[in-house]
Each structure stands twice: as structure tokens, then as C-alpha cells.
Specification:
By secondary structure, the chain is mainly alpha-helical. The chain has 19 helices and 2 strands.
Length: 476
């Protein structure tokens, strides 16, 4: 089996090297003059991911869920109250701006949802802990409303039991909607986005009343479910609805039970949407698909996410739901860093404009209303290094996570000579079932780095060719 795996990896990498050349010969900007052609980076990344998968498969790496070594405790009150205040103020600011504000760079709806929420909170959830548990303005609004009703002596009713068959599917549907809003509707800035956020708030509060605050947060509320999944990587884990957390080794949450088929689809949508966003900004994609309207882009998005989700579901049939989800989640986080970290660091600077002009009425309260976000302080070579490390690192961690969870959930290995056979349930059978996941990971690594490289990497030959074109144009 080792020989076959080695041959398959070699053939796959050779095919990548052959097919990537004609595609990578154009549409790269002058941001970073690389010493190596982009295809070298792609081949190296693909080899690294393939070898990491080969290592965990051939050595049959194992892992067990570490025992709880820390006491469950709630974060300090000042932190909990402070985060809840920030979330509520952000929500009130969006509503105030929607009612009495104008338009401009200080659009806090876009800033808080897409920049600080979609990217910032997601990264904190993955690398620190469940910050959304207290930032969540919907929970704070619900608690405030319940307090007012109690003070007024208004009788309430018992919430209905949450239907078990629904699972996380409402959150998956909500996630798909927000992805469409971001990628097809351009984030829907201004009044449209404000209306969506207010409507989503009302819907969320209604569902909390219907099924209970905590059951809806745990199952149906899009951001709570998504950030909760990302939090399986974090060193601080949420262990109870009242906000108790526990410290654990990084990424050990991947080994914990509780994965569902809806989680696989949600993570596939998260990974596919980021990849789709990167691909649609490349020249080859534009040359093939052009610039269709909203309907055409919707069809493209649905088709692309459908392909990614079907591939993930097909792999889950081979290796199981938990290994597939555990393998894909680190990839999604790596893509999030690679594609959107600069967006957070640069567009996030618009908060300076918003603070000085909170209602977008032309104010300049603190002298920062005309601040122009810039990324001159970000060296392009460092950005490319971070992107490369995030994509490859996410795939390598995914290779480990997918395999160890598959082995953790597998039946006891057959003893004796049968352990080396491909009989169902044997170690060899478990490894062979993961080969399709390895192939998909190598392909995704190459594809996403290629899309990123179109915007940041140019090799010396391409750089000199561009200079020649400029010289010809200037002399004519």
C-alpha cells in the first residue's frame, strides 16, 4: 500500500506541475516580486500536504481525548459584562445609523457584521475561545426583554421542545443566506444590510421565545453554531449554557463527540464560500464566466457550494461524519486567515471614521473622520508567507484531525495478520478509506493558493515582461 500511495502522490503532483504552467503565466500583479515561479510554491505546498497525510496514514497516528485537567469556571464579571455591552452598543449603533444616519465609509453595519464579526470574531473563536457567548446582542436583547416582562408582571409561557430532527439545519440555511448576501450582493451595504440585520434579530428573538434561548442558540442561531464549530480548535471551550469554560489543548476539541451531518455541510459551505470568493476575483474565472448579474452569480455560487458539499458528504460516507468534519474545520480556518486577515487589518481601520462620524452626517468629533485605511505597513512578502502557512498548516492539521478521529471512532483493530488486510474494520481498510480525503485536500491546497497567488505573487520573468510592455506603451 505504501508503494501505491507514493505512486499516486507522485502522479498527482506531476499532473499539477504540468497543468498549472499555462494558467499561471498571466494575471499576476506587481505586488510581490518572487524569486520562484508560483508553480513552485503550489507544488511544494501540495507535496507538504500529501506527505503529512501519508505520514499520519502510514504510521497510523493515534490520539485520545485528553482528560479534563482544569476546573469549569466562568470568566471574570468585568469581561462578561464588557463584552455584552460591546455587542449591545454595536447593535444599537447599527439601528441608530439606519434610522437617522447617512451613507459613507462609516457604515457600521458593514463594519460590525463583515469585518469584525464574519472575520474578527471567527478568528478569536478559533484561536482563543467562545467570545460570541457574551458578544451576542440577540441574547442580551432577549435577556433584557425577559427582565422587563418579569418586572411588569407579564405572564410568559413555557417554550416548546426543540425538534431533534431539525438539528443544526436552520443554522446551515442562515449561513447560506449570509454567504449569498456577502458574495452575490456585495455585502448589501447601507439600508439593505441594516434591514437584514434588524429582520434577523426579530426572527432570532421569536425563535428564542418559541424554543428557548439556549436551545435556539445551540442549534438554530447561525453565528452561534458557526462560531461554536470554529471553537473546537480553541484552547478555551464552552462547557455549559451559563458561560462556564474549561481550558484544554489546542485542537483537542476536534476529538470530542457531537458532530452531525449538518456540521459537515456547514463547514463545507464555509470552506467553499471562501474559495469561491478567491476564484471569482481571478482573471481566468472572469475569462470563462464573465461578469454575470445577480442571478448568474447566484447560480454559480449555488453550483460551486453544491459541488463542495456533495464531495464532503461523499467522503463522509467513506470515513464517517466526525472524521470528515474534523478534517475540514482546520482547512476552513486556514482559508479564513489566508483570504481575509488583510481585510480585517485594513478595512477594520474604518472604525476611526465611524467614531468621529457616528451617524454619517459629516461630523468629525475626534479628527479621524477622513482617515483612509491603508496597508502600506504590511509587507507583501509577509502577507504571502502568512497565506501560504495558513493554507498549508490548515490542511496538515486537517490531515491529522481527520485521521485520528477516524481511528478514535473505529472499532478495535483486528489482531494478527488480519490487521494488515483490507477487511472492513481493519486498520488497512480505515487508511484506504481516507485516501479520497487526502486527494481532495491536495487539490484544494493547490487551487486556493493559486487563486491567492494571482493577486500577490509575480516571478522575475513576469516582472521583466511587464516592464517591457510598459516601455513599449510609453514609446508609442
Amino acid at each position: 500500500m505504501k508503494t501505491r500511495l507514493a505512486r499516486s502522490a507522485a502522479l498527482g503532483l506531476a499532473a499539477l506541475a504540468v497543468t498549472a504552467g499555462p494558467v499561471l503565466g498571466h494575471s499576476l500583479n506587481t505586488t510581490y516580486e518572487s524569486r520562484l515561479p508560483l508553480v513552485v510554491y503550489l507544488a511544494g505546498a501540495a507535496i507538504a500536504v500529501a506527505l503529512s497525510f501519508a505520514f499520519v496514514l502510514l504510521r497510523d497516528v493515534r490520539a485520545t481525548l485528553p482528560p479534563a485537567t482544569s476546573v469549569d469556571r466562568r470568566p471574570p464579571a468585568w469581561l462578561r459584562v464588557g463584552l455584552r455591552a460591546i455587542g449591545l452598543i454595536a447593535w444599537l449603533w447599527i439601528v441608530a445609523q439606519a434610522i437617522a444616519g447617512g451613507g459613507g465609509d462609516a457604515d457600521v453595519g458593514t463594519l460590525f457584521l463583515w469585518v469584525y464579526g464574519w472575520v474578527g470574531v471567527a478568528l478569536i473563536s478559533a484561536f482563543v475561545g467562545p467570545v460570541w457567548q457574551w458578544l451576542n446582542p440577540f441574547t442580551t436583547l432577549f435577556d433584557l426583554g425577559a427582565w422587563v416582562l418579569r418586572r411588569a408582571g407579564v405572564a410568559t409561557w413555557e417554550p416548546s421542545p426543540y425538534p431533534g430532527w431539525l438539528g443544526h439545519w436552520p443554522a446551515v440555511a442562515g449561513f447560506a443566506f449570509f454567504v449569498w448576501l456577502e458574495l452575490v450582493m456585495g455585502g448589501a451595504p447601507g439600508r439593505t444590510l441594516d434591514t437584514v440585520l434588524v429582520g434577523y434579530t426579530l426572527f432570532t428573538l421569536a425563535m428564542m421565545v418559541q424554543y428557548g434561548r439556549d436551545p435556539w442558540r445551540a442549534n438554530g442561531e447561525t453565528f452561534s453554531v458557526w462560531f461554536g464549530l470554529l471553537g473546537r480548535l480553541a484552547p478555551f471551550a464552552l462547557v455549559s449554557p451559563d458561560g462556564r469554560v474549561r481550558r484544554r489543548p489546542f485542537a483537542s476539541g476536534l476529538l470530542e463527540p457531537g458532530w452531525s451531518l449538518a456540521d459537515v455541510v456547514l463547514i463545507a459551505f464555509g470552506t467553499g464560500s471562501i474559495l469561491f470568493d478567491g476564484l471569482t476575483q481571478t482573471t481566468p474565472w472572469y475569462e470563462v464566466f464573465g461578469a454575470p448579474g445577480a442571478l448568474g452569480e447566484t447560480v454559480q455560487l449555488v453550483g460551486f457550494l453544491g459541488v463542495i458539499a456533495v464531495a464532503a458528504l461523499a467522503v463522509s460516507r467513506l470515513v464517517g461524519i466526525a472524521p470528515t468534519a474534523a478534517g475540514l474545520l482546520p482547512i476552513a480556518v486556514g482559508y479564513l486567515i489566508a483570504h481575509y486577515l488583510t481585510y480585517l487589518l485594513i478595512d477594520g481601520q474604518r472604525i476611526l471614521v465611524a467614531i468621529s462620524d457616528p451617524l454619517q452626517q459629516g461630523s468629525d468629533l475626534f479628527g479621524t473622520a477622513f482617515t483612509v485605511p491603508n496597508g502600506d505597513w504590511l509587507p507583501p512578502s509577509s502577507v504571502w508567507t502568512i497565506q501560504l502557512a495558513a493554507v498549508v498548516g490548515g490542511h496538515m492539521l486537517g490531515a491529522w484531525g481527520g485521521h485520528v478521529v477516524a481511528r478514535l471512532n473505529a472499532p478495535p483493530a483486528t489482531v494478527g495478520r488480519e490487521a494488515a488486510t483490507r477487511a472492513p474494520g481493519s486498520a488497512a481498510d480505515a487508511r484506504m478509506r481516507q485516501v479520497p480525503l487526502a486527494v481532495i485536500m491536495v487539490a484544494l491546497t493547490t487551487l486556493t493558493l493559486w487563486s491567492l497567488g494571482q493577486n500577490i505573487v509575480r516571478n522575475p520573468a513576469q516582472q521583466s515582461g511587464l516592464a517591457a510592455e510598459v516601455a513599449v506603451d510609453s514609446s508609442s
